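Sequence in, structure out. First:
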Amino acid sequence: MSNEAATAQAAQAAEAAPAPEPLPHGLGASLPPADARAKTEGTFPYAADLWAEGLLWAAVLRSPHPHARIVSIDTSHAREMPGVRAVVTHEDVPGSPLHGRGKADRPVFASEVVRHHGEPIAAVAADHPDTARMAAAAVIVEYEVLDPVTDPEQAFEAEPLHPDGNLIRHIPLRHGDPEAAGEIVVEGLYRIGRQDPAPIGAEAGLAVPRPDGGVELYLASTDPHADRDTAAAAFGLEPERVKVVVTGVPGATADREDQSFQLPLGLLALRTGCPVKLAATREESFLGHTHRHPTLLRYRHHADAEGRLVKVEAQILLDAGAYADTSADALAAAVAFACGPYVVPNAFIEGWAVRTNNPPSGHVRGEGAMQVCAAYEAQMDKIAKKLGIDPAEVRLRNAMATGDVLPTGQTVTCPAPVAELLQAVRDFPLPPLPKDTPEEEWLLPGGPEGAGEPGAVRRGVGYGVGMVHMLGAEGADEVSTATVKVHDGVATVLCAAVETGQGFTTLARQIVQETLGIDEVHVAPVDTDQPPAGAGCRGRHTWVSGGAVERAAKMVRTQLLQPLAHKFGMSTELLQITDGKITSYDGVLSTTVTEALDGKELWATAQCRPHPTEPLNEAGQGDAFVGMSFCAIRAVVDVDIEIGSVRVVELAVAQDVGRILNPAQLAARIEAGVTQGVGIALTENLRTPRGLIRHPDLTGYALPTALDAPDIRIVRLVEERDVVAPFGAKAVSAVPVVTSPAAIASAVRAATGRPVNRLPIRPQAAVVTERS
């Protein structure tokens, strides 16, 4: 065959071949993350991978006691070790000796007293990581061991553990008639254990001194500007002389960054004049960062003969551990949502957050809301059982809707399709029953090697309905700034919103694609030279940072379209951009975005700030929240009632999402949240007998694996847009975490008839004996 014939045949084949599938584009498409390939191949740079010329290594000495008075600290042996370049203690902190996310009450290094197991005492910089660790161990600390206060109920009467006292916050919520009473009353006492965020990637950082006497911190920070300000205060420097550069964040279910190592890291770099790196071991991570608040809850529900709620009374006690951190915020969420997404005309809630000598508690996804959800849903099951009503039906009779009023007095103005969500999961077909055949023994609780017998397995179906607030609360100033630049047909987004796995960088690309019709969009790395965007939690960046990107992109769009509109004598509102083409409403104008740009460089900066909120008053009343999101989950479990093993068979999820911006990403976030809830319900419990963290590793702390993940069925996503939110979208990842533990506990109650009043569910709580 001649070359000409072969070329002609190839051309014919190309014409006959189907056109390639267009790449996902803009809002509503499942645009893949830009860093997906690098993360899959293991080439994505995290903080633990960083290196610098002349690098030193750091190690932190932590207290082995939960409560002790420091008699003396002797660093001489550590300083004399070969290879040691610096040892710092509380005496070497040039600036503020205290720090903290919500309240500055936590010392950089303990000086007179240690208040929790793992509190930093000293830090060392050396030329080798092993040398640094040995030198830290060589620091001699003489302690006078004190009795720890580990029971939060004892904290009210105990001697003050902190100069600020033991009580961090008390919220007495009063709503309605205190004399109101129902025809039936159910009561319960509930306990929620301590969970750890357990980020899979190592917590690490690099500090590099600057010629101007400042320092640059390379961290997996989720709130770089707050971390910069905290560091600057501790280092005695102006904020402009401290720069935080965000490295890859290897998973974050909360504000994961542990300031008890990043502050010593910067101090060591300033002291030595050399770059200093620290990569925390898993034990150090458990000892250093904050955990979910263990909570004690007492409830009394009043209902009428039809199961409609009349009054809810509750006492909620949060164990904040040694320091305040974000406990005041967690308590506000717990008290405000103590009745759940139900209409409650009368509510009287007492909430406290107290200091103990337990490890510090802080922001973990769904804080406050998760603990109360487990309790109020248990109460709803008790009402259903007492009245002989289907558990889903009693929830439907009380379901909240838009226009209803929270116990805080705030009207729910956002979409609240609680009944619709609950009906969706209730009506979804149940999974088939397991068969008693050897080849399907793996379907039984405990797996094929389990000790149980098929005849002892009982199936249970339960429900959970949860709610969370989005953004900050009680007057928090939520603001974010973004810049969009366009040059040579490529758009760049500059925004200090950190990509923690929630998908912000992908969303930013989609927003610019949708608004400007430009396919190639890059999101710049984050550092504190950019304007602040706030913390990456509670759906903030989807709402606030995404809103800022949208506004900046629309301003660039106007710059792009104005010359064309002027030329054709029309308004820019009469022009639209679709698939990279600019067209007018009447079809007279038709050109491409590339032609319209014609080598121009366009840019704009914009801010997004949601409407203000207010603090709860002395009666727990106030418009404290910007918006809320809701979720309903039906859990199906199999329980071996002889040995207490639980297998979660299926979780059916319905959720209001406002608007689906990226279907694949949204589904992944919901599934991840539900799976995290499985761990909270069944396995995750950081044990701290007498304040000591027992087994601070992933052997002693049992995370759910892929083998523990149940079938997750997303049966309904309600797209009712929140008119005050950019794009109308809602946060999606926290509310499944809040709801799934309550649903699983409900299903175990249905299978066993046992009360199940503690999370995680212990095997003995699921065992059925003749007496029980």
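Second:
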Amino acid sequence: MTGTLRRTVTALAAALCAAAAAALPGAAPAQAAPPPYPAKAEAQWIDRDTVVWKGAPDPAGGTLQLESGPDGDRRLRLAPGTLTPDERAKYPHLKGFPAFTVDPRDQAAAATALRDRLVATRRAADGTLREATGVQIPGVLDDLYGAAASRARLGPVFDRGRPTLSVWAPTARTVALELDGRTVPMTRDDRTGVWSVRGERGWTGKPYRYAVTVFAPAAGQTVTNKVTDPYATGLTADAERSLVTDLADPRLAPRGWDRIEKPGAVPLRDARIQELHIRDFSIADRTSKHPGQYLAFTDRASDGMKHLRTLARTGTSHVHLLPAFDFGSVPERRDRQAAPDCDLASYPPDSEKQQECVAKTAAKDAYNWGYDPVHYTVPEGSYASDPDGTARTVEFRRMVQGLNGAGLRTVMDVVYNHTLASGQDPRSVLDRIVPGYYHRLLDDGTVATSTCCANTAPEHTMMGKLVVDSLVTWAKQYKVDGFRFDLMGHHPKANILAVRKALDALTPAKDGVDGKAIVLYGEGWNFGEVANDARFVQATQKNMAGTGIATFDDRSRDAVRGGGPFDADPRVQGFASGLFTDPNDSPANGTREDQRARLLHYQDLIKVGLTGGLADYTFTDSAGRRVKGSQVDYNGAPAGYAAAPGDALAYADAHDNETLYDALAYKLPRRTKPADRARMQVLALATATLSQGPALSQAGSDLLRSKSLDRNSFDSGDWFNALHWNCADGNGFGRGLPPAADNKDKWPYARPLLADPALRPGCAEITGASAAYRDLTRIRATEPDFGLATTEQVQRALSFPLSGRDEMPGVVTMRLGRLVVVLNATPERQTQTVRDVAGQPYALHPVQARGADPVVRTSSYEKGTGTFTVPGRTVAVFTRG
């Protein structure tokens, strides 16, 4: 029956039955032609009993109902109701909206209604449509299917070599498998909403996708979407098809995979992490045989791998890889990748030409950070030698082997909080299978985009399940040792704890990995539509305290660098960039009195950071008050929020914002010599390296890495991003003005700096900084008092003996067990007299006394008075004999 004929018949039937229908108890009024599909979806069907409708119309003189079907001929009647206490707790953001109860006689039709066009309407007594809105359905889908579906095994599952392919698509009318040029019908399980088909052994290695016939609100009609598998374990190039891939197939295991030897696990509180982009690592390394690829980490003789091994020997425990799952911003086939067609090296160091040329090909080149997920559980193909097949699986595993062999455990940066696309976009996978479910919708039904892309909704059962299942796969099948969650505050705390529980259940005997040794940390920022626990208890800094899952600590970072990442004037100074003690000429720094006060407050923030960000650690602040870490102010929030070391992750720089060297280039006085810039870099890194709890630094920061002042290099290409392991190649500074899109407002500040040859460090500064940094990581790794486990232990062992009204601006002195650490950020040699240690035998730590930095070796200690003397721009660690 055609749509036109069906509508005609429906209208005639409605007219003939109107009087009889009106006489029946609870009957709906006569039905007119259905409205066009609404642009907004302000009704939310949260369970089979309840609909919440923002701005719901007064039902007086008519009826409210859910209309399903192409003609709206299936109706579920709504009556005014209220949210139950459980519903209010589950949906706190909806408690102020009108609620309605689905007529009990109609509730059995819910599953059928959800598989078609669905609109909430108010109609007059004569059937005339008065108002209509679309309906959000994640809640009712979870109510109907969540408990059973959450136990389903999805994607390709193998049994003695035979695959079963399963996809959750409860709202689909039909789902078929397109495999190797033929179409195979799939069977629906009405209890779970899962469609599946059992295949033959010969299906292994074959490309496939699903043909899902479903009503798509974005299209306003029923469509048949040809979609790859959200649970895919293999892909063809550019994710055009999924591959039937058995990750347990011995042919996909590199030699020695089943007996891989990992470096010893360390507690998260002792982790020292290098954050690294796979392409950055080797693309400019002339000694690498596999530039820009996973296999670069198997090139043992390359400069990059030699440097990583050196870091591992001196205390670095983990390499954190920026996204390495399938992302959508890079063409995977090399013959489709563009490259700048300019002689970039020929332009002046302050030229606009480099960024202009790079920008022309940025959308089609081989570079992106990769925070734009398409398939969560398949390695990215552009890093493989061949993206079209299973090489990406084998080579990712070889990368893990290479890092483990270098003494480093592997962390993956994971991005489950958003997808590259939603709706009917060809790159949208989840939303074209279950439209309107996997993404977080605002009150009007639009997809939330506070994360910059289409926000997912891990609070929904099956999105939360996808997060857990995907991470377990990476842990078991790729032996990944840790995960860093992008924008973790957009996840429910319960979801991240479910991840922890699932990983903890993995054992070497059963799964080949020790899940309890896997570290977890993430960005616990609090913003967007979920801010302040608006929809659920978030995985934010304050909420994750005490869970053993760390969040990035921005308090000490800002104090060390100065200002914040988004200052209009990038010259705002901090502890390690000369505030008050070596001022630049920026009016943004305020008066001398302002600078002194701010510097002393920054020192309090750094002290809290050195404790591991502990909320309940008590000390004397720079105003002479006895305070807890939680009572020190950070832009209106508590500086200390951690319940134990390991809750807060310290860092001075990461891939976001300017590199540490570039931030210091802006902030230090222009006259500052490269040798002194290098010393301030080491001092800044020391505030994280010598803290309680885990610490992270961006790869290359020990080598004074620059991105030519680019504050957001996610799409800036190899020219601005590549790591330079050979100091003869420089550190990346002076490669032209950074790309205009994110930096043009800073060009007036950047241009004179980039043009100044005195700001470009040489080999002496680069290698010297790296060696001094490694001395600090060696001290941190070998002195057990840096790895205390509880607030009580830190309170007993760690103190700031000179903190108070008379403390020196620009110097922080920390006593830790048998150690005394002096961080002197001033340009001059300073003395720090700690009367409590007078008469005790202290000396410069042997690692520094025999170390690479000749300046720190001039530090001294006067036993009679307990006076420590430390050169300017130096961090010195003393130990009691």
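Remark: The radius of gyration is 30 Å.
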